[in-house]
Each structure stands twice: as C-alpha cells, then as structure tokens.
Amino acid sequence: MATELNVVAPYTKGWDSQNQYDQEEARIVRNAPNTWEVILGYNGLADLINKINQLLTIDPDHPCLKTLEIDAHGSPISINDMTRIDVNTWSAQLKTLNWCDEASIYLSGCNTGLARTTRITDPARVGPIAQQLANALQFNAASFAHKIRVYGSNGYLSGTHVEGNENTVDTFTEREWSWSFPPWTTTVWKKYPGGSNSSGNACWIGFKNGNW
Q: Nearest Cα to 206, choosing from 145, 128, 92?
C-alpha cells in the first residue's frame, strides 16, 4: 500500500444537471491513475473530511495526505460550498487531517486562482479563494508544521489535475437553447485580471501557506 494518499473529490451539488455530474464523475473514475483515490458522492465539508479519514485509517501503512483535489464549480471567491466567508471553518477541519510534510490542494473550479473585479481591494472580499485557503492553513512549526500549496485556476477551467487534461480560457461564452426566436440566449462570462488561455500545469497559480 502507498504511504502517501492522493484524493480527488467531485462535489455532488451545484452542477447544471444530474447528468452533468454523472458524466463528470464517470470521466474521472475512468481516467484517474491507480495512485489516486476517488471520493464519490460527498455532500459537504463534514462528509468530505469523514471520507478522507476513512481512506487514511483503513490503510495499514497509515499514509499521509499528499494531494487533495476538489472538483466543483468555482469563482474567485468560492469553490461550491466553500466561500470566502467560511474559509476559516474549512481550514480548521482540513487541519485535522494527517497531512504529509509537504502537500498540495487543487481547487478545480473556474477562476479560483484569480481575484474578482470590483472597486473593493480587500483580499478577504475579492479573493482569490485559493490564496484565502492557503492563508487560513498557515504554517506553524509548533501546531501545523505542514508546507501546503493551494492551487487555483487562472481562467474558466475544463478537465482536472488528476486526469492531466486541464485547460483554461480567459473568457467563456455560453449559449442556452430555448423555444424563442432566436432559439438561444447568449451569456459572455467576463475576463478576470490574470485570466489566461492555458493547458496543463500552466492552468494553475500556486499559493504557499507561509514564508517557507
């Protein structure tokens, strides 16, 4: 058994349809390397922590958590049910896990590594959510001696890190078909500062949880 645990967890809520979630889940299960565990059907923070702890404790080699990827819809200030408002609650629960000395968290949703555009400049209100989580998981040699990088995406994301098929675009155009004329409505999702058309590792912006 492995002494380091890599986990990807597709969030069950927030998708446009059940079919969209089912397709996302099936694709990840099909493509994830056998060095990764896929957590299916997690419904919130407590459930996610519980499922990760189960994976950590059933392994007789007592692995540490090396990588956690959360796959969900995102924005500069949220990754589905984690928002800028409750990021400290998330960090407190994540700190209870048995992390490796050096580890990574991927927030696999759109624009999670970027700040939203607003006249307000307070990072606590504009993001990026990946940096906020990294700050909340602050390294402390006495109480939390784990060096963690939290990765956020630099645009509208498709694919996942675990699959190695991630791509970002700086703007996104969405068409929704209807019975009206013309038979669609078009929504153009705006570009955030720093947005990029990228693939692979270039899709990610990493934030350290301290000055190590």
A: 128
